[in-house]
């Protein structure tokens, strides 16, 4: 075969490959765009809508221990029209004070559930601290709160979820919500005037 023929054939093959690549990229982009337009994903929202604490008592330091039963109501809102959610597990933690390093007071497990699209699910959670060990400084502050009649906590939610569109299920995601500060009055009357606390939600 003459050299020019071989070259022109190589150019034709190259042109074909480039065209195929361009078409593939365009089709992939179109698929993503159509998916986005059809599904229109919206963020999941969490709100603490009720909080009450009972049996709140703490021993004096050193070796302080806390008793408390936290009754928390959370609204988990899935505003999506086409996306439903499967919660495989959900844990709720009550931490004392604000910030990352706030000490943990109580924990609760919520059984998994399925949340349909456009649905707000109310979660009623009871987290119990039974003779939970507390550092000296936090114990003194908690005792001060007891006397003052209100305690400020941080509610953290950690869940493992899948998203479903029709029958297609996504991979597992870790969802975290942080609600802070949640100020809980210790008198039985205060639960009636609890102001809702919105949470920061992150999915990874
Ligand atoms: C906490 O509760 C346990 C029993 O559940 C009790 O023995 C302990 O004295 C209580 N502590 C406080 C500080 O009330
Ligand atoms: C709180 O605990 C103290 C002991 O640390 C106990 O004397 C007191 O009765 C307890 N109060 C309540 C309301 O349980
Ligand atoms: C949300 O879904 C749950 C579980 O399917 C259901 O019990 C609840 O009534 C729904 N809430 C609304 C507001 O549709």
Tell me what the structure shows.
Residues 73-172 form the Late embryogenesis abundant protein LEA-2 subgroup domain. One of its GO terms (cellular component) is plasma membrane. Pfam families: LEA_2. Keywords: Membrane, Transmembrane, Transmembrane helix. It is found in: Membrane. The protein folds into 2 domains: 1-39; 41-203, Immunoglobulin-like, CATH 2.60.40. Helices cover 25% and strands 52% of the residues. The chain has 204 residues and is α+β, with helices and mostly antiparallel strands. The strands form 2 sheets. Strands 3, 4, 5, 7, 8, 9 and 11 form a 7-stranded antiparallel beta sheet that branches. It has 2 helices and 11 strands. The N and C termini lie far apart (58 Å). The structure holds 2-acetamido-2-deoxy-beta-D-glucopyranose (3 copies).
Going by helix content, strand content and strand pairing, the class is: alpha+beta
Estimate the mean pLDDT confidence: 92
Number of domains: 2
Q: H/E order of the elements?
A: HEEEEEEHEEEEE
- CATH secondary-structure class of the largest domain: Mainly Beta
Instruction: Bin the helical content.
Output: 10-25%
Give the terminus-to-terminus CA distance. Answer: 58 Å
């Amino acid at each position: 075969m003459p050299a020019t023929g071989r070259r022109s054939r190589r150019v034709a093959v190259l042109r074909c490959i480039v065209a195929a690549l361009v078409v593939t990229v365009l089709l992939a982009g179109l698929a993503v765009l159509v998916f986005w337009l059809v599904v229109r994903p919206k963020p999941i929202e969490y709100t603490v809508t009720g909080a009450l604490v009972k049996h709140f008592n703490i021993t004096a330091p050193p070796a302080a221990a806390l008793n408390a039963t936290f009754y928390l109501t959370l609204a988990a809102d899935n505003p999506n029209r086409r996306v439903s959610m499967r919660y495989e597990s959900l844990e709720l933690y009550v931490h004392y004070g604000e910030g990352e390093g706030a000490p943990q007071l109580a924990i609760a497990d919520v059984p998994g559930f399925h949340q349909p699209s456009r649905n707000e699910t109310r979660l009623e959670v009871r987290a119990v601290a039974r003779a939970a060990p507390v550092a000296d400084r936090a114990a003194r502050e908690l005792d001060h709160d007891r006397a003052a009649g209100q305690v400020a906590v941080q509610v953290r939610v950690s869940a493992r979820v899948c998203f479903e569109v029709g029958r297609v299920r996504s991979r597992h995601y870790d969802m975290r919500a942080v609600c802070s500060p949640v100020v809980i009055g210790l008198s039985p009357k205060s639960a009636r005037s609890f102001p809702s606390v919105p949470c920061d939600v992150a999915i990874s």
